């Protein structure tokens, strides 16, 4: 009775369990799904750390063959089994000119993608503290002009996708993003939060409603709302082949719906049709149909001051808020929401946050689809799957819809 | 030999006594036993199954001419406790499976028990009727109403003996108080209140009041995405009506005192054993989740069951258990397979014997284990039809972990993981145990010398 004890199979098994628990008699069992989420977290951490280790080794090999341009580049990776926490990936460096130096493109690209995946959830967590409004793209654009690692450290995911050049790119046509060293973490693998005081300030105000963005964060980065129009342009040029799902949008996950065989892309928790295939990519072309709307649609469970009730029956009252104008009627997914993403906070909080980063906002859909939430059959298109995101990084063959 | 007291010596041998249930291999799921419980005297034994039925067995009076055979348990009453329901608001089906049965102490001729499914607790009254009134004036023998004009005389109805009839009536229904699945109920020692626990909340009820309950524990986070643990079991202290414990999926136990505050979110004591980092695996969180917690009869100790071990804790020491017993440590290397086939989520229960000297819990392959706390000896027994001859002595079983398998041993890979013993019960004062093996109930007694 042997089974493959590797991270990949465990993740797929776990996702399958969560998926099948939807249809089990008696409703979703909170306890069992919580335990499965722990396995998912562990497997995911191992998987990511293994990948990073492997790519780092490859990187090292190439580095030895070339004169080292960035000696300080150092990818810290956690030992297998240890949580690949934010401590491993600190604020990103934009790097100087030497980045354009040709390096082994494939490894760096993969590393970049992997890093991006990890930054995805970091970024989601941080964004939660900052603005409910435009995430991802616009925020990245806002962060870009500031140059320097400081501002970008708050938006690591987006920063990862920016071209290596430090100059602001707003409004400028951009070269396709070279898999440059920019996304590589800086030498000192410190935790994201402590490293950047502004980010840590954001972290330390966990219960601040998104609307009341922590002052530090507001002061730190330019408001996210300006120039949303420029951000799509910024983004459109910034990325390579549109078929590369994982890279397209910083806060993007791709979903394969096993029921309808529709491939959709979720950006910022806001579900679109396959935006890479469409000419009018909402996240890239139209500046997101109203950042406010996107956020409203994407935020299923907003914190309204004074409304943090535990009224189970009313919990999902605001679920189906504004429908995304994507044309497809489906319930928007819940936005991932994190209270403390500080390394010194309880590691437990990061358990579920890690899971949520896997599913985007899908897990919150799981736990809220307990008997206490007003029940809707889970919408077909509102499903997120980390597997597809991971699929772009490795030799995955199975895409499993979580729920 | 004094029954139930220090009885686990080398002389203690367990014998088969009875088995209840069908022998067919193809069992319907509704017949799977989901809970077993003796009442406070041991005279009655109740079982609940997945089909929502409760079957109560009563021990027959021991006859003088069959002194070597202790009283057998025969069916006393059967009733449908819970039916499947549908929550239309949430589009959820509510299973009728009986999760727990708890007896109330007997205070009059009738017996009372609590039975619960995922959402609703019911108080059942089980009473006997062996007389019936005859000689009604307004009704005839068949019960039809008589025309008052035809009545010329009056008589007083008399009670005449009839065949014993045991009737079960639902006296109280405690519903709509739990959002999550109820996993435990526990009767308080004041016999006026009881608690019901679900994944995130514990409610305190008064037996007389069904439309209200007090919430005494609530671990639901404001943001469900921060959920890290759930309540897995809860029990009142056997003597102190203000004290209860609840266990969590993280392997911790909290003891709460209701005198401290109305909402016992802050524990009085917190029992947790530091995790052994060398044992860390993908499944560490799962196997550390406590599936059952039981106070000892003395009230001094609590026993917890997680996937691989049983632990005994002293209420006065919070930082680690005083005893840890390995139930089936050979499964530690099989956790991945057990995760795949969902066996790792099985919730085993554990029980104390009457004197708190021996603890018992179930395992796979219809094995169950007993640990003597005094002699530190343990035994593995099997509940199977092969050992079902009357008064047949159960032979200890052994699972072979190494390569070389001895004659009577069974290898780990041959274990049947579909035959699991999750529910067992021990008579409160005698060495009589009830072991639920899927759809069969085995009753074993110690050999009377």
Automatic annotation (TrEMBL), chain A:
<feature type="compositionally biased region" description="Low complexity">
    <location>
        <begin position="190"/>
        <end position="206"/>
    </location>
</feature>
<feature type="compositionally biased region" description="Pro residues">
    <location>
        <begin position="176"/>
        <end position="189"/>
    </location>
</feature>
<feature type="compositionally biased region" description="Low complexity">
    <location>
        <begin position="213"/>
        <end position="230"/>
    </location>
</feature>
<feature type="region of interest" description="Disordered">
    <location>
        <begin position="305"/>
        <end position="326"/>
    </location>
</feature>
<protein>
    <submittedName>
        <fullName>Immediate early response gene 5-like protein</fullName>
    </submittedName>
</protein>
<dbReference type="InterPro" id="IPR008653">
    <property type="entry name" value="IER"/>
</dbReference>
<comment type="similarity">
    <text>Belongs to the IER family.</text>
</comment>
<feature type="compositionally biased region" description="Low complexity">
    <location>
        <begin position="122"/>
        <end position="144"/>
    </location>
</feature>
<feature type="compositionally biased region" description="Acidic residues">
    <location>
        <begin position="307"/>
        <end position="318"/>
    </location>
</feature>
<dbReference type="Pfam" id="PF05760">
    <property type="entry name" value="IER"/>
</dbReference>
<feature type="region of interest" description="Disordered">
    <location>
        <begin position="122"/>
        <end position="230"/>
    </location>
</feature>
From TrEMBL, chain B:
<keyword id="KW-0677">Repeat</keyword>
<dbReference type="GO" id="GO:0000159">
    <property type="term" value="C:protein phosphatase type 2A complex"/>
</dbReference>
<protein>
    <recommendedName>
        <fullName>Serine/threonine-protein phosphatase 2A 55 kDa regulatory subunit B</fullName>
    </recommendedName>
</protein>
<dbReference type="GO" id="GO:0019888">
    <property type="term" value="F:protein phosphatase regulator activity"/>
</dbReference>
<dbReference type="InterPro" id="IPR036322">
    <property type="entry name" value="WD40_repeat_dom_sf"/>
</dbReference>
<dbReference type="InterPro" id="IPR000009">
    <property type="entry name" value="PP2A_PR55"/>
</dbReference>
<dbReference type="InterPro" id="IPR015943">
    <property type="entry name" value="WD40/YVTN_repeat-like_dom_sf"/>
</dbReference>
<keyword id="KW-0853">WD repeat</keyword>
<comment type="similarity">
    <text>Belongs to the phosphatase 2A regulatory subunit B family.</text>
</comment>
<dbReference type="InterPro" id="IPR018067">
    <property type="entry name" value="PP2A_PR55_CS"/>
</dbReference>
<dbReference type="InterPro" id="IPR001680">
    <property type="entry name" value="WD40_rpt"/>
</dbReference>
